[in-house]
Each structure stands twice: as C-alpha cells, then as structure tokens.
Design brief:
The chain is α+β, with helices and mostly antiparallel strands. The chain is built from ten helices and 13 strands. Strands 8-10-7-11-9-12-13 form a seven-stranded mixed beta sheet, sandwiched between helices. The structure holds adenosine-5'-diphosphate and magnesium ion (MG).
C-alpha cells in the first residue's frame, strides 16, 4: 500500500461506494450512519476502536481504558443529536491479562459510564491478541432530525462547546513522566464528557455538527468540506482553560487548534437563530462559544481561514497511515 495515504482517502477509495440501501439516510462519511427504521424513528450507528499505545498509554488502568472507550463512542452519538441506547463490545486482549482483577476493573469502568448515559451492553466478541477495544454504539433520533456535517451555510455562526486543548495538554502530561499530573486533565483524557444533552438540544438550532476527536482544524475541515463552505475563525475567541493558557502559553493555541481528544462539539447555527440559540444555551447552562462564521467557498477551495490566514484542513489531526 502507498504509505502516504491517509485513512480518509482509503475509506473513500475502497469502502464509500459500498453503501447503497434506500433505508440508509446517512452512509459513510459522518460521525455515525443513520438508518430509517420506522416512519417516526432513525437509528444512529457509530464504531470506534481503541488500540493500546495509539489511543491510550500502555500503563492505563483497566477502568480508565473502559471509560475512555465508551465515552469516545458516545461522543459520536452527541455529534448526531442522537439518544444513545445500546452498545456492543469487541475485546481483544493479551492472554496473560486474563486476570479477574483486570476484567473486574474494566467491567466496573464500563458499567459506570453505561449507567451515567443509560446505555445497555447487548453483545460483542472476545478474542486473544494485542489489547484492542472496539465499541459500536446505537442511538435513536426522531426521523429527519439527526445532525449532519453537511448542512452548514454561508453566514452561519460557528460554535464550540467547552474548552479546547485539554485533550492535548493531558496527553502531554501522560507522555512526560516527570511532569506533575493535573487531576482535571487526566480525568478529561480518560473520561471525556460526551455532549449528549447539548446534541439533543441542538436538533432545534444547528445546521451542522461534528465532534472534535482529531482537533478543531481537522474536524471543522470535515464539516466545511461536507457542507461546501469556508470557515473564518478568530483565534482570540478559542475557549482555552485558564490553567492551560497560564502553564503552557507557548503551546495552548496550537493544542486548541490541532490537539484532538477533546470530544467537544463544533456546530453551526444560522444567523437568524443565533439570539434564540444563545438564550436557550444560557438558560440551560451549556458552555458554548462562538468562534467565527461561515462564508461561501471560494474558487481556490480554501475551507478554513484563521485570523484571515489560509490554513490547510489536513494541517492538524492524527493520521493513522501517514
Ligand atoms: P469519527 O472520527 O467520527 O469516528 P472517522 O474519521 O473514524 O469518524 O470515520 C469517518 C467516516 O468513515 C465515518 O462515517 C466512518 O463510519 C467511516 N469509516 C471509517 N472506516 C471505515 C471502513 N473501514 N469502512 C467503512 N466506513 C468506514
Ligand atoms: Mg466523530
């Protein structure tokens, strides 16, 4: 295989054409697939795989691995505005780890998150091999109300939830054993907070939505590409936690833009809905910040400008095959 291919080209070259059923409302290319099941409901389906030392450090506890695995999958449900209901678990683990202690911790972590978000484990697969956890989550939406990546229009306001750069700051601490660990960040890494309630509320306001797993530039880039618009971002408006700004003033901006692992939502709201949306978000204590707006895509196909500078949407983000 060509070693420089990224996973997005790989998916579009080899798998994207395989979707074809009429009841598939949204196929490959969004945070989850959407299937029309009844005349009133759609099911959202998303899968994410976590590989040891790629998606979490080797020394993570079983409970930490389990909470991270389920939370990152639930985040794709939030991005679609879906209510998560069920999940399957495919667990591949080294033979020598099959101690009841490891499995006890793993199952406790899973149960804690499953309880919190009211989702049931309904099946899976168990094999021996390098530690890899693959979860498929299924959720429900009223028909036609799923949030997709392709609905943004010129003039829409671009928002993000929470703070950006926490995931990258946490990873920086986890990979540098000499650094003092910050409990807030370690929790953000091992138990990101899928924005399910925000996603459900956004059905009434957002024109497009994505969750930020690979960094704002990469993920907002996917949204702009799917919608055919250009995002103008004002970097002064990026929400960065004051602790990170203070402790890592040199890195915090680039962590917020390209770091990934934040699992916040990035979404667009039409200008004429802005006031109603902000009133609703404020009344319901959702922490959201406007960071820019959409304009028509120019003929150069520049999908993203930050402080009026063109930015390549492949500049950030982790690529598994590069
Ligand atoms: P996310 O970051 O939201 O989990 P990904 O970047 O992993 O999304 O995937 C992008 C899109 O490509 C998704 O719609 C996903 O379902 C699809 N996809 C990824 N890998 C494959 C594959 N091997 N076969 C078919 N579709 C895939
Ligand atoms: Mg996603």
């Amino acid at each position: 295989m060509n070693q420089t291919i990224d996973e997005f080209s790989l998916i579009s070259n080899f798998f994207k054409e395989l979707t074809g059923q009429q009841d598939v409302a949204v196929g490959i290319g969004d945070d989850a697939a959407i299937i029309n099941t009844t005349k009133d409901h759609q099911i959202a389906v998303a899968t994410d795989t976590l590989v040891a030392s790629v998606h979490f450090p080797e020394d993570a506890t079983a409970e930490q691995i389990a909470t991270r695995a389920l939370c990152v999958n639930l985040s794709d449900m939030a991005a679609m505005g879906a209510i998560p209901k069920w999940f399957t678990l495919s667990l591949c683990m080294p033979k020598e780890w099959v101690s009841s202690e490891w499995l006890q911790g793993f199952s406790q972590g899973l149960a804690r998150v499953a309880d919190q978000y009211n989702v049931s484990l309904i099946g899976g697969d168990t094999t021996a091999g390098p530690l890899t956890i693959s979860i498929t989550v299924l959720g429900e939406n009223p028909i036609g109300q799923s949030l997709c990546r392709d609905g943004a229009k010129p003039d829409d306001i671009i928002y993000v939830s929470g703070t950006l750069g926490d995931g990258a700051a946490a990873l920086h601490q986890l990979l540098n054993s000499t650094l003092k660990k910050n409990d807030r960040l370690i929790e953000r890494f091992y138990q990101p907070q899928p924005q399910i309630d925000l996603g459900i509320g956004l059905r009434a306001y957002a024109s497009a939505c994505i969750d930020i797993s690979d960094g704002l530039i990469a993920d907002l880039g996917h949204l702009c590409k799917a919608s055919g618009v250009t995002a103008l971002i004002n970097s002064q408006l990026l929400p960065i936690h004051p602790d990170i700004k203070q402790a890592h003033s040199g890195q915090s901006r680039s962590w917020a833009l390209t770091g990934g692992d934040d699992y916040q939502l990035c979404f667009t709201v039409p200008l004429n809905q802005q006031a109603d949306f902000e009133y609703w978000a404020d009344s319901n204590n959702f922490d959201v910040n406007a960071i820019g707006n959409m304009i028509p895509l120019d003929h150069n196909q520049d999908y993203l400008k930050i402080d009026n500078q063109k930015v390549s949407i492949t500049a950030g983000g982790y690529s598994h095959f590069r």
